[in-house]
Design a protein that fits this description.
- The protein is about 45% helix and about 15% strand.
- The radius of gyration is 19 Å and the shape is globular.
- Helix 7 runs parallel beside helix 8 and helix 8 packs antiparallel against helix 9.
- It contains eleven helices and seven strands.
- The protein has two domains: about 5-215, Spore Coat Polysaccharide Biosynthesis Protein SpsA, Chain A, CATH 3.90.550; about 225-300.
- The protein is α/β, with parallel strands linked by helices.
- It has helices at about 15-25, 45-55, 75-80, 105-115, 145-150, 165-175, 190-200, 225-245, 255-275, 280, 285-300; strands spanning about 5-10, 35-40, 60-70, 90-95, 120-125, 160-165, 200-215.
């Protein structure tokens, strides 16, 4: 029976991480499930205390391994720890605030065996801060090309499952681009999906979903404000540039055109926000960084 590794990154996660861990421990899957917790020591709440409660947990087919690290961006934590140590045949990523339904792993593994895909993804079902369902299941688009994915992220990272050999392959590539701190803070789930759609067989699991918690602390889903808008634009552009860095020479003419269009759209949106938030931007170092990556994008792909 295939073994599974589930990566949970823990940063200021005290409020919800217990539910995420318990949802993995309670899976009806009969095979081995290893939980890899990447604990960020920059955390300012009692996340470590919650995690330590699970350190005494022992079960024949449920293992918890905790890796403590200095404060890192989510992408670097995933590369340095999350994707470096898994022993499972398949690897999943679960954010600390989300929940796996009890049959999630068994459903995903069954579809992996039947499809022979190296990259699988499912759907999300939104829940609120208290775990109440607040919307219909969001079935991610089942038929799309790499060009569609370049224009915008269509696959949520919590729904991704990677075959181990492919996960190791892309993690070695992540190591190479992270030698440049320029790429530290991008959307790692979008980059993984872009690479996988270019490299290997993918498969959408229609009958599985992750319970996706929407709350005000979410990096991308907790409402929009000036700071999130600016940060998300920066991460979008860095993700596209990292993809170009890793696969640019293998892209078709149509895929390169899609990449240019995607960057132009984000450039336009960035300029609108720079005009809208001119006063606030003058106080932020992020402003100069955003301008620098926009310049780099145009030097590489537009001009």
């Amino acid at each position: 029976m295939e073994s599974i590794s589930v990566i949970i990154r823990a940063y200021n996660a005290e409020k919800y991480i217990r539910y995420a861990i318990n949802s993995v421990l309670g899976q009806d899957y009969d095979g081995l499930i290893e939980i890899i917790i990447c604990y960020d020591e920059g955390t300012r709440d009692n996340t470590l205390g919650v995690i330590k409660d699970f350190s005494k947990y022992h079960h024949e087919i449920r293992i918890i391994n905790i890796y403590r690290h200095t404060h890192l961006t989510p992408f670097r934590a995933l590369q340095n720890y999350g994707l470096t140590y898994p022993k499972g045949d398949y690897i999943m990523i679960l954010d600390y605030d989300n929940i796996m339904p009890v049959n999630y792993v068994s459903t995903m593994v069954k579809n992996a065996e039947n499809s022979k895909a190296q990259f699988l993804f499912s759907n999300i079902l939104p829940i609120d801060e208290n775990g109440n369902i607040i919307g219909a299941k969001r079935s991610q688009k089942t038929s799309f090309t790499l060009k569609d994915m370049i224009l915008g992220n269509l696959i949520d990272g919590n729904t991704i499952m990677l075959q181990r050999d492919y996960a190791k392959k892309i993690n070695s590539e992540f190591s190479s681009i992270l030698s440049k701190r320029f790429f530290d803070d991008l959307f790692e789930d979008w980059l993984i999906a872009l690479l996988a759609l270019k490299d290997c067989k993918s498969y959408h699991v229609k009958d599985a979903c992750i319970l996706y918690r929407i709350h005000k602390e979410n990096i991308t889903a907790g409402g929009e404000d000036f700071y999130k808008t600016l940060d998300n634009l920066k991460r979008d552009i860095l993700t596209l540039l990292a993809f170009y860095e890793l696969r640019g020479r293998y892209l078709s003419k149509e895929e390169l055109m899609a990449l240019q269009l995607s960057l132009i759209r984000r450039y336009t949106l960035s300029m609108r926000n720079i005009a809208k938030y001119k006063k606030e931007l003058s106080l932020l170092e992020k402003y100069s960084f955003l301008v620098s990556i926009l310049r780099k994008a145009f030097e590489k792909l537009i001009i």
